[in-house]
Amino acid sequence: WQWSSREVLAAAERGAQRLSARFEPGEPVAVWAGNSPEWVLLEFAAGLAGVTLVTVNPAYQADELAHVLGHSKARGLFMAAEHRSRPLPPILAQVRGRLPQLREVILLEEWDQFSATDSSSPLPDIDPGGPAQILYTSGTTGRPKAAVLTHRGLTNNARLAAATIGMRAGDIAVNPMPLFHIAGCGLLTLGLVQTLGTQVLMPCFNPALQLELIDTYRGTAVCGVP
Prior knowledge:
The protein is α/β, with parallel strands linked by helices. It contains eight helices and eleven strands.
């Protein structure tokens, strides 16, 4: 699948209208899935609709999932049917009763059907200082901590980091980083938009696949863990 910037914008606007019809600006909506094009479209749609995107590690087990969804007070959840051959709906089912504020659960694989429904909901004016995403930290000895990122902070960070790295218009970055992590959904996804680059999204890190994609798409940049 390939999209131009114009096509991404159009798809994100359609998704944003549907989100606006079902969620109020500022309401937390979670995404629990591995890397996919739909994840990226949801990220942009959430920004346009003014809902706060809560990114959830798809490797989480039931108790971890319940903590993040409960702590963030997520009203909606877009989830994958499976992650690395592990079905996710049964995991959610184990803790669904502990999440009274969760109103809607939508399979991310059904994003096209979700966003294709006709809707005339106007898109709200977004406060740049308002919350855009909530990311949960890793590497702590206790429960993951919620980091609230604003629209202005998230986009400025991505733009300045991309500039510091030296990313330029026309760059093609092969991205193996998980989208629930700030490097995947922030630096690369938002940085490349602002530097007029192209993102080649990988479902997950695989050395052979990454080399193949660099060769196929003539990649000029990669991002990875040292």
